[in-house]
Structure formats: C-alpha cells, structure tokens
Amino acid sequence: MPWEAFDPMRQKWMRLPRISCDDCFTCADKESLAVGSELLVFGRELSGFAIWVYSLVTHNWSKCPLMNLPHCLFGSSSLGEIAIVVGGSDKNGNVLQSAELYNSEVGTWQTLPDMNFPCKLCLGFFMDGKFYVIGGMSSHIDWLTCGEEYNIETRSWRRIENMYPGHDAGTFHPTMRSPPLVAVVNNQLYSADQATNEVKKYDKVNNSWSVVKRLPVRADSSYGWGLAFKACGNSLPVIGAGGHGGNCSAFLESR
What we know:
The protein is mainly beta. It has one helix at 23-27; strands spanning 4-7, 12-15, 31-35, 38-45, 48-55, 60-63, 75-79, 82-86, 99-103, 108-112, 123-127, 130-134, 147-151, 156-160, 182-185, 188-193, 198-203, 208-214, 228-229, 235-241, 247-253. It is built from one helix and 21 strands. Strands 3-4-5-6 form a four-stranded antiparallel beta sheet. The protein has a four-stranded antiparallel beta sheet with strand order 7-8-9-10, with no helix packed on it. Strands 11-12-13-14 form a four-stranded antiparallel beta sheet, with no helix packed on it. The longest helix has 5 residues, at 23-27. The two termini are 35 Å apart.
C-alpha cells in the first residue's frame, strides 16, 4: 500500500514513492510520525525493528537510525524539528515507561527520563510547548485513564489523573478499543470518543471534557481502529468508516 501526503495549501493528495523494504515490513503493522520535513515509518523487517524516513526535500526514502531502545505500540508527537516517543512494547512484549527524543535536523535519538508509569497503545501530543501522553495500557489487561505531562526545560514528568476522556468504554471492553483519538489545534485539545461517536473539547483549567458535536463518521463500528483524527491547520480532518459501512472523510473547523 503506497503512502500519500495531503497538501493543505492546494487541497490535493500526492502519492509518495514506494519504500524499498522487505516483504515483512510491507505486511507488518506500522506506525508513522511526521517531524520537520520528514515522515518516519516504524515497523518490522526480517532482521527486527526498522524505521524508514521520507524526506520532503529530496523526495526519497532512506533508513533511519533505530531508537536506543527499539519498540512498538508507543505514543508520539512532534513539535517543529523534534519528536518525542514514549512507552510501547519491546521485542519481548514488555510494557515500557521509557522516552526518547528524535532530532530531525541531525537524525539522532536522545534518551529522556522515564515516565512515572509504563504504558502502551497510548497517544502523545504537544500543547503549550509541553509534551503529553494519555490513555493506553499499563499491562496486557489494565487500561489507563490518566495522563502525563513532560516539561522539556526541566526534564520532568507530572501525572494528571482522569485526563483521558474515554474512561467510559461504553458497550465494549476497554482492551478492544484503539489508542486515544486526539488532536491539538491552536493549543486546544480535542478528542474523538470511540464509544459515543462525539467530538469533545478539553478544559485545561478544570481537567474536564465537554461535547462539541457528533462525529461525521462512525468511530464505534470498529472500536476506533481505522479512524484518522488529526490536526491540519485550523481544521480537524476525520477519515474513517461511514454510517453505512462505507469510507468517508470530513473536515471539522476548530472554534
């Protein structure tokens, strides 16, 4: 499956060149992260974990150095030329509380202080210059409802209780749902609730969530898996299953 990129200025999609990877990487689950002028794609090759990077400058794919502790199922986000990757599972399935920073200008990974708790299938984002991680699982059966805040200047973590809006899983078990579906627009955090099919807005002062509107697509049809909810300029693109099982997409304007 080829990768595609969306140009918000021209409102057009463009198809990227194929990755020169092995069949294992092509067929395996993958995670992606945009940082600076690069797109990082994480996956597995026959030899183990691998990262491929696409450059918007050269329009080519190349191998990216591995993290200091290679793993998958992590939370991540980027701010300008840097990205932070936290938690996840190592090759033996152990749930991690490690954190690493990637600098796209020099292509290197730096180990950061550990989080307070291990987590996998979590979601990371930047807001007001700080990195946050919410949700996820601390073990193979325990789901987290808290969040953690990382201060880049002080290199310290702070736990935030009940920050994840999906603590009520609705009609399906928490372990069945996707990682949290959140996006930040103009330093305002939004969430697409997998159980209620609602877009919610985060109140930083009161650590609470309020409903903004219904999602234009179905998030509960596959427990949130396969639904894209991202920030793009002042909009929130939502791509996923439609109400009658077909695929559809929509742009929600941030207010």
